[in-house]
Amino acid sequence: MHLSAASDDVRVSGENLTHHWERVRDRLKGEVGEVEYRTWLTQIILGPLEEDEVTLLLPTRFLRDWVRGQYGDRLQQLWRAECPLVQRVELQVKRGATVPTPVSAVTASAVIPDEVPAAQISTSQPPVAEIRNDLAAPLDPRFTFDSFVVGKPNEFAYACARRVAEKPSSPGFNPLFLYGGVGLGKTHLMHAIGSELTKGGQVSVAYMSAEKFMYRFIAAIRSQSTMEFKEQLRSVDVLMIDDLQFLIGKDNTQEEFFHTFNALVDAGRQIIVSADKSPSDLSGLEDRLRTRLGCGMVADIHATTFELRISILEAKALASGVTVPGKVLEFLAHKITSNVRELEGALNRLIAHANLFGRPVTLESTQEVLHDILKAHDRRVTIEEIQRKVAEHWNIRLTDMSSARRARAVARPRQVAMYLAKQLTSRSLPEIGRKFGNRDHTTVMHAVARVAEIMERDTAFAEDVELLRRMLEG
């Protein structure tokens, strides 16, 4: 290493320069902390001193630019305080420490950094291309905006996703934080955004679950390739992390994600995150991370309504080409209410069963094919629930179940509710009668017999009662 003095009478030996550098490094480490130092600064190598300028070498251009932007001024101040002969600090990429970057991708069109540390290209490390190809998950081509059924519960999240897909990194929409329960469409929207952005091949997108982010981070630490990991993620235009709640309680991974988040947002790149709760409710995440996640656009996806579930099922059934009766769709929409993914899976099983065996889809076959799913949703039926479901079905007031009104529009549904209470509960006739306005047990007996009689001669009426029974019974 060539060293020269800043003046003729004062010279700095190589040994002294190394000593100065160690003191500067220790002070900087004390200021930024162990994690920050290990993340960004540990790979700095002392270079030559020429005149009043000392050179510090870094293995990659990305790392050089980052250190220059974040710590350049502070390094210069520390050097001046430690060794007055040094007035300037030059950060350079170490020559011979880089290899040409192959045109590979995190996803199909991901941007790859220009340089990678030569030290990491050794026989003991996994190939660079292998790491990159394995870094992110592929986008599912089935999840597009066209295949996403929009309703009141998800229209806001859909609109925000559309906006980000059209104009990524727009003010107010970065980061985009989508949250909601399991199976409500968060992942679908993220894939749709990614597919839309990568259509032209000009935008690089990396999508992965928070779990995968953590395991890749750990693997990078073990293989001493953390800088590659950082550079790959921080070189993309859009980073999407699914199920962020997985990082709760994983402090080191949160730390890494926090720095990645800052690096991308500072560079004007788009961040899209999903979780099961809003940022403010994600207790267990560091406050600084929760604050940043909530500083962009936060869009929630509410639980589906009956109408939205019907729309989803109708769209899927139409696309399949299999005729699915409306009563079957209503039955599924009533029985499977919390998870769209499970709802679609149930319909897919019915369609597959119909195609494989050439049989029509009916309520009976639905209950047979989906017995395991329906059993999981089974619950103890109460008379109150029967009354409520029957009242909703015939659009009468719940109070009419116990009122004295005898109009057929009210009396017939009340008789059906009594019939179902007898069929689906273990209550005695007097107990059922008391639940219906303290009626006598003979009134209940008459209702049960009357409903059974009508069901034998009126197919439509029988189907209505059967539908109600299946919805209540599962």
UniProtKB/TrEMBL annotation:
User: What are the record keywords, sorted?
Assistant: ATP-binding, Cytoplasm, DNA replication, DNA-binding, Lipid-binding, Nucleotide-binding
Where does this protein hold ATP? G183, G185, K186, T187
Q: Where is this region: Domain IV, binds dsDNA?
A: 355-474
Task: Tell me which family the UniProt entry assigns to this protein.
Answer: Belongs to the DnaA family.
Indicate what this protein is called per its UniProt record: Chromosomal replication initiator protein DnaA
InterPro entries in the record: AAA+_ATPase, Chromosome_initiator_DnaA, Chromosome_initiator_DnaA-like, Chromosome_initiator_DnaA_CS, DnaA_C, DnaA_dom, DnaA_N_dom, DnaA_N_sf
Its GO CC terms are:
cytoplasm; plasma membrane
Region Domain I, interacts with DnaA modulators, as annotated, extends over 1-115
Q: List, in alphabetical order, the Gene Ontology terms for molecular function in this entry.
A: ATP binding; DNA replication origin binding; lipid binding
Taxonomically, which superkingdom? Answer: Bacteria
- Which range is the signal sequence, renumbered to this chain? none
Task: State the organism of origin.
Answer: Neoasaia chiangmaiensis
The subcellular localization recorded is: Cytoplasm
- UniProt remark on domains: Domain I is involved in oligomerization and binding regulators, domain II is flexibile and of varying length in different bacteria, domain III forms the AAA+ region, while domain IV binds dsDNA.
Specify where it is mainly localized.
Answer: cytoplasm
Kindly name one Pfam family recorded for this protein: DnaA_N
- Region annotation Domain III, AAA+ region: where it falls in the sequence: 138-354
Q: How does it assemble?
A: Oligomerizes as a right-handed, spiral filament on DNA at oriC.
Listed under GO biological process in this entry are: DNA replication initiation; regulation of DNA replication
Q: What does this protein do?
A: Plays an essential role in the initiation and regulation of chromosomal replication. ATP-DnaA binds to the origin of replication (oriC) to initiate formation of the DNA replication initiation complex once per cell cycle. Binds the DnaA box (a 9 base pair repeat at the origin) and separates the double-stranded (ds)DNA. Forms a right-handed helical filament on oriC DNA; dsDNA binds to the exterior of the filament while single-stranded (ss)DNA is stabiized in the filament's interior.
Q: Does the keyword Cytoplasm apply?
A: yes
